[in-house]
Design a protein that fits this description.
heterotrimer, A: 193 residues, mainly alpha, 7 helices, B: 679 residues, alpha+beta, eight-stranded antiparallel β-sheet, 21 strands, 18% strand, disordered N terminus
């Protein structure tokens, strides 16, 4: 028993140094050298200042831009409070929220074709989903075209260019990174202006 | 089949007695040995109290019916056990009647004075005199004299047997009767622990202890019972959260349906019936553990003589000497054997008749005198009036005989003799005065059907090893003929023990039979040691089974019964657990359909009402015990197949069958209950 | 469900199938003390660990010694984690100046990580300093996983040995599992994850101004190093609150695939190790296929339910084509999320890439049932193998009788002692799950934490105790678990579900090791081939189904029916 305790404490100390310190530091070292952009947060810069991370979704309120999904992280896309709504399938609160989101989305996108895409009215698991489905992006094109003045056909081409396919043609879903798309939109409208 | 089988499977008197016993067994002191049924009884009490108490909700008729069926469940399980015990009890009564207190004539002092004492006062080591017409007062060994004894009280076999001092036929059993002559018996058992006493206790089940496997199964069943207890007890809080409630009666009904009452109720009956089946083969197993072990055996040691072969050699061929016609040899051989009443001698006469149509003749008309076999001459034959002498016997003895008559043993005959001996046969040379006529080939004859039995054993994964004192050549030839897997030749008794140890060290479980005192250590070492009733007291005490018929091949049946016993347990356990699925589908929707009408979707059997659903499940659960009593007593049908095929078959019947059967059964009961307006 | 979903599940399964043999062989080499490729690098390090810790690597332990070593080591681990959590404000690497973790939460978190549960009643980015994450939490991601592997290896030895008194040395198994298995694979995986965008940073949270001009704080940290071991060690405790749905933990379908492969790699490999160390490779495969059957069934049901979506929402005008997207990331969609949920609960991982609480009832039933079956579908590292060992023993015991012999498993008689211990290890989690959730749904303290009403609330409480007792760590995360009631009860369930299961199982291993091996014959119960595979899968399902049918029928089952009927709560 006493032997066991002694060995346990010594092993814990050795492993803390090895696994708790040396290992993460070694990984960090490789990251610094090999993947400085990806390993430090994939931050995107515009006009010299960080406007967000390619991987972290952000709330979009400005007109003329594509909207991300609803977010349950804090008051929306709060990086310090990642998470989903955790409302269940028979939750009245969820059904009410989705009904409100549907109404809002429809009101915001009066010219949008077809039924509301699912990701337009559902909150993601992380609350920081950087993507929307191509369907949702295209669904917003009429509104963005109207607000930004960029022809819808151009916007559709931009969406297509930013659409990432499935991994190996099989894993995951096609998606559009909202921040990258909006940067494209901004740089296009900026040039025009 | 045995002579004890006259007690029928379901005798009317037996059933009446069992019915009474099943009520007597309701006593908690008895029930506590069976955790599953104890829970059922506790549940039944609880439901009864709920019925009598104030807090009753719902239909009274429904609650009353549930309570009645709960009690019926317990009674049915008790009944199964009582029926299984019944036959043993009836048999014990029969045995007890033979056990009257006899007066023994005890020898005192060296002078051989006798004193009269009651048989119960006899102690180990006492010597008693028993004469024709008297009962032997206790188990013992004949130390003086020879007698014919009627052992039918123990064995059921009416033909008398010979018991004599010295050798392997010296053991006598208390309660048997001397028919002729006078013997002195040294008592080997203390009063109250005679073979008869033990037998009574065994068949009655008084000494019945749970076997290791039964204990393990009991633990499993108790564990499952706790699981279901947890599932049922916590159901009330879950129901309350969901805005409903469940009454104690219904919870008890659910619990009783779920816990493995089928196997729990039949488990002890299966064990008792297994012992009983062994007994009906006239084998007395000293414990249930021995029967279980028999199912596990994978090496069977069988003595050649008397077990695999008929035990006596028979003439199979006549090999004439050069210049002798075979018919002449046959005639001489027949002459030499005419008065020879040994099985060998008779077989020679039969062979001569079969081959050449030679009919037997009377000695008187031949004017000849029979010369019997003696250990000194090692020959037998006829002396004719006029000096003609015909002999048959061992080659060297006949060699001496013909030399004395001026003849000689031809080289060809010597070669025949050597060849026959080499093949495992026994050569007998026939001579007419100084002239050698040829050789009779005596062969060990393998019993009919042995090869098939060994094939069956092999299919079950059991290897047979033949033990023989013969030389390896002989042994190999017989082994081949009989189809055993292996043999041990030139075996001495201690070799048997060594072989058992070797097999056990290799992870095998070994069964053997034996009767001699020198078999005792091996019988004790073997996992299953079956002693012959004709054997010595030492052998009978060393083994864990005694075959009252003294038929060593019966070991094979015992192995099958052991396997069948275990299979029955496994099959009914599987059946019992599989049943639960259907019961859930009957009861759960019924419990909560009031809270969540959508749960009606789970009512796949479309049972009429919630009450009829619950009642049907309870009734099914109780009736299935009764329905399976015959199966528990008889055992599941057994076929000698490999483990994989047996498993597939039993899983299909008892696993899948157990899944499906209650769906049908519960639905039918539901229809019936509705038709009878009971629910 | 689209055909591509079947294909995706199938391809993932084939990858696992391909990994099983090489991983299994490597594990055997590591634990049989054979030479491995990594010996030149790790040999000196291993010897250094033994020298510093004072371990004699040749000295083996009996099952009691082995179990005691685990208990002492684990309790010491709990105390260590607790100390670091409480002292984190005073220790370095706390760039965001997080205060000490409150005592009850610190205690339950310590138990959670040491028991390989990684149930998190906190939000990582807002509660734990970088040092706590690395040197306390990620440390035990390694050590609790290594402990699980050690127990599995000890169990395999118990089966493989005959008439033996010892089942190995815990210290050696722990060290070799860590150094030779977990550390190298984690390192390589962490590097791959970083290349895809998983962060590994010691910088404080980044502050950015978004395109819309708002301020956004983005927490960073040493995530990649923790993410790799979190999946490989089937720990599942996320660096961030959102766990593997957080883009910094799991940024793309590619990383998602890698993480799912890491979860099953060692558990699947161990089935092969079982076969090869006992000299019965076909038995190992029979176990593998039984697990595979249950995995494929679960993944199929879950993916189907999630792709069909929620009729209540569809009635509100939401497009049905994308399935149920509430709580799911666009990059994963319903199929990858359902697959991940199945994998993480088949194993005792508990990492999530979507919110199980927002799954459809049937979709959520799958992870719940997976854990309730004992997480034996590949299962946690080591835990899956020693868990299925219990079911193998039960299957052999029940069905073994049906071949007409007293039951035996690979030449060892299964008797009362083993059955008792097997039942104990089944009963402990059952008790924790049923009694715990029953207490939760009738007590004020329990009810007040539920985020959902109706049957879903019951599912939430049930899931919490299921996850804790099963040492899974995933959650119907709407439940507010950081209350005295849940912190204490769940920590107790985690502790019981871990150690009151490990100890009886080691007892079974010790008892089997001491037995002599019986010879095999045509009459021996076969533990390989399709028949045994189906039997084993059947026993697992029947035992689990019979235990939890009532409560499941009042939770997810009825909720599925209510959802179809359009009821909300």
């Amino acid at each position: 028993m006493k032997d066991h305790l002694l060995v346990s404490v010594r092993l814990l100390v050795v492993f803390t140094l090895l696994l708790g310190v040396a290992y993460p530091v070694a990984v960090w070292g490789v990251g610094r050298l090999a993947f400085p952009y990806a390993a430090s947060g994939s931050f995107l810069r515009k006009d010299g200042r960080a406007v967000g991370s390619e991987l972290i979704g952000q709330a979009v309120t400005a007109p003329g831009l594509f909207r991300p999904r609803p977010s349950a992280a804090g008051s929306g896309y709060d990086g310090t409070a990642s998470g989903g709504s955790n409302l269940g399938p028979t939750s009245k609160a969820l059904a009410d929220r989705i009904a409100a989101e549907v109404a809002r989305a429809r009101a915001e996108n009066p010219g949008a074709p077809g039924p509301v895409p699912a990701d337009a009215v559902t909150a993601s698991g992380s609350g920081l989903d950087p993507h929307v489905s191509p369907a949702f992006a295209l669904w917003q094109v009429p509104r963005v075209a109207k607000e930004s003045g960029i022809p819808a056909a151009d916007l559709e081409r931009m969406v297509a260019a930013r659409t990432e396919g499935r991994f190996l043609g099989l894993f995951g879903e096609p998606r559009v990174n909202v921040l990258l798309l909006n940067l494209d939109v901004l740089s296009r409208s900026g040039r025009r202006r | 089949m045995s002579k004890h089988a006259e007690i029928r499977l379901l005798d009317r008197a037996l059933l009446a007695r069992a019915a009474a016993d099943s009520v007597r067994k309701l006593h908690p002191r008895h029930m506590v040995h069976n955790p599953v049924l104890f829970v059922v009884e506790a549940g039944a009490v609880l439901a009864t109290l709920a019925l009598l108490g104030v807090g009753t909700r719902g239909s009274l008729s429904f609650q009353l019916q549930v309570v009645l069926w709960l009690w019926a469940t317990v009674l049915f399980a008790n009944f199964a056990e009582a029926v299984a015990e019944g036959r043993g009890k009836a048999q014990a009564d029969a045995l007890r009647r033979t056990k009257t207190d006899t007066v023994a004539r005890r020898l005192v002092g060296a002078a051989g004075d006798e004193e009269q004492v009651g048989s119960t006062e006899l102690r180990r080591g006492d010597r008693v005199v028993v004469e024709a017409g008297q009962a032997i007062p206790g188990d013992g060994t004949v130390v003086e004299g020879i007698a014919s004894v009627d052992e039918s009280a123990i064995t059921g076999e009416s033909a008398p047997v010979i018991r004599e001092a010295g050798g392997d036929r010296s053991a006598v059993t208390g309660g048997t009767k001397v028919l002729s002559d006078r013997i002195v018996v040294e008592i080997t058992s203390e009063p109250g622990s005679t073979f008869l006493d033990r037998m009574i206790r065994l068949v009655e089940g008084a000494e019945r202890q749970k076997t290791p496997n039964e204990i393990a199964l009991d633990i499993l069943l108790a564990g499952l019972t706790i699981v279901f207890l947890l599932a049922t007890v916590t159901l009330r809080p879950f129901a309350l959260y969901s805005g409903g409630d469940v009454s104690p009666t219904v919870l008890v009904a659910l619990l009783v349906c779920l816990i493995p009452t089928t196997i729990g109720g039949l488990l002890s009956a299966i064990g008792i019936a297994g012992m009983d089946r062994v007994l009906r083969h006239n084998v007395l197993a000293m414990s249930g553990r021995a029967v279980e072990a028999a199912g596990d055996v994978n090496v069977l040691l069988l003595d050649k003589t008397g077990t695999i072969t008929l035990g006596n050699r028979q003439a199979s061929q006549l090999v004439p000497a050069p210049g002798v016609a075979e018919r002449d040899l046959a005639e001489l051989a027949q002459l030499a054997s005419l008065a020879d009443e040994t099985p060998e001698g008779r077989s020679i006469v039969v062979l001569a008749k079969e081959r050449f149509g030679l009919r037997g003749r009377e000695l008187r008309e031949l004017k000849a005198r029979f010369v019997p076999f003696t250990a000194r001459t090692r020959m037998s034959g006829l002396d004719f009036e006029g000096g003609r002498k015909v002999r048959k016997g061992a080659a060297d003895a006949v060699d001496g005989f013909v030399k004395a008559a001026g003849g000689h043993l031809p080289e060809e005959v010597r070669r025949d003799v050597a060849r026959i001996a080499g093949e495992g046969g026994t050569p007998l040379v026939v001579a007419d005065g100084g002239r050698v006529a040829g050789t009779i080939y005596l062969k060990d004859v393998v019993k009919g059907g042995m090869r098939e039995r060994f094939d069956r054993l092999r299919a079950m994964g059991i290897r047979t090893v033949m033990i023989t004192g013969d030389n390896p050549l002989t042994a190999a030839s017989i082994a081949r003929e009989a189809g055993v897997d292996d043999f041990l030749a030139e075996a001495k008794p201690e070799d048997k023990l060594a072989l058992i140890r070797k097999e056990q060290a290799g992870g095998n479980l070994v069964a053997m039979t034996g009767d001699g005192t020198n078999d005792a250590p091996a019988l004790a070492q073997a996992d299953v040691g079956m002693a012959m009733n004709t054997g010595t007291q030492a052998a009978k005490e060393a083994g864990n089974m005694v075959d009252l018929d003294s038929n060593p091949t019966k070991l094979i049946e015992v192995v099958e019964i052991g396997k069948q016993l275990l299979m029955t347990r496994g099959a009914l356990t599987t059946f019992s657990i599989s049943n639960d699925v259907a019961k859930y589908f009957a009861i759960i929707p019924a419990l909560f359909v009031a809270t969540y009408p959508q749960l009606e979707a789970l009512n796949v059997m479309k049972l009429a009402t919630p009450e009829s659903a619950i009642l049907s499940a309870v009734v099914f659960n109780a009736l299935v015990i009764v329905a399976l009593i015959p199966l528990a007593l008889r055992g599941v049908s057994y076929r000698p197949l490999g483990a994989g095929r047996i498993l597939r078959r039993n899983l299909l019947i008892y696993g899948v069958g157990g899944l499906v059967a209650p769906f049908v059964g519960i639905k039918l009961i539901d229809l019936l209950l509705v038709a009878l307006r009971l629910a | 469900m689209p055909a591509s979903a079947f294909l995706e599940i199938g391809v993932y399964f084939l990858l696992i199938l391909a990994l099983t043999r090489p991983v299994g062989v490597y594990l055997r080499r590591v634990f049989a003390g054979e030479r491995t490729l990594l010996d030149p690098v790790l040999g000196p390090l291993e010897r250094l660990v033994y020298r510093v810790a004072g371990v004699d690597p040749r000295k083996e332990q009996g099952w009691k010694g082995y179990a005691t070593a685990i208990l002492v080591f684990s309790v010491a681990g709990v105390l260590g984690v607790y100390a670091v959590e409480r002292l984190q404000a005073l220790l370095p690497l706390d760039p965001d100046r997080l205060p000490a973790v409150p005592p009850v939460l610190a205690w339950s978190t310590a138990v959670s990580f040491v028991t390989n549960t990684n149930w998190q009643a906190y939000s990582g980015e807002a509660t734990m300093s970088y040092l706590t994450q690395m040197a306390a939490l990620a440390l035990h991601n390694f050590l609790s996983a290594a402990t699980g592997i050690a127990v599995a290896v000890a169990v395999i030895r118990g089966i493989a040995r005959a008439e033996a008194k010892t089942i190995g040395s815990f210290w050696v198994d722990l060290t070799r599992a860590t150094l030779y298995v977990l550390l190298p694979i984690s390192f390589v995986s962490a590097v791959v994850l970083m290349s895809q965008g998983v962060v590994q940073s010691f910088a404080p949270a980044a502050k950015v101004t978004t395109l819309s001009g708002a301020a956004q704080t983005i927490p960073l940290g040493p995530v990649a190093s923790q993410e790799a071991i979190k999946e490989l060690g089937t720990n599942g405790g996320g660096f961030f609150n959102a766990n593997s749905s957080h883009p910094y933990e799991n940024p793309s379908p590619a990383t998602n695939l890698l993480e799912m492969l890491l979860i099953f790699a060692v558990p699947a490999g161990l089935t092969h190790t079982l076969g090869s160390m006992t000299g019965k490779p076909r038995h190992g495969w029979a176990v593998f296929w039984a697990m595979s059957l249950l995995f494929l069934a679960g993944a199929g049901v879950c993916a189907r339910a999630e792709t069909r979506g929620n009729p209540i929402h569809q009635a509100l005008g939401v497009d049905a084509a994308a399935g149920n997207m509430e709580g799911k990331e666009v990059r994963f969609g319903p199929v990858d999320t359902a697959l991940f949920a199945t994998v993480t609960t088949d194993a005792s991982c508990g990492a999530v890439n979507g919110m199980h609480d927002s799954f459809t009832p049937l979709g959520g039933l799958v992870p719940l049932v997976n854990i309730q079956l004992g997480e034996v579908v590949f299962g946690g590292v080591g835990a899956g193998l020693y868990g299925i060992f219990v079911f193998v023993v039960l299957a052999v015991f029940i069905a073994g009788l049906m071949v007409g012999r007293t039951p035996e498993y690979l030449g060892k008689k299964v008797e009362g002692g083993e059955v008792k211990l097997a039942m104990l290890s089944v009963l402990v989690p059952t008790f924790c799950i049923l009694v715990g959730s029953a207490a939760a749904v009738v007590s004020k303290a329990g009810l007040s934490s539920l985020a959902n009403a109706g049957p879903h609330g019951l599912s939430e409480a049930l899931y919490a105790f299921t996850s804790a007792a099963g040492n899974n760590g995933s959650a119907f995360a709407g439940l507010n678990a950081n209350t005295g009631f849940y912190d204490v009860l769940l920590a107790l369930a985690m502790f019981a579900g871990r150690f009151l299961v490990i100890v009886p199982i080691l007892g079974m291993a010790g008892s089997l090791a001491a037995k002599k091996r019986l010879a095999e014959s045509a009459g021996t119960f076969p533990v390989d081939g399709p028949l045994f595979t189906f039997l084993l899968a059947g026993v697992i399902v029947v035992v689990g189904a019979l235990t939890f049918f009532p409560v499941l029928s009042l939770g997810p089952a009825v909720e599925q029916l209510l959802m179809a009927a359009g009821r909300t709560f």
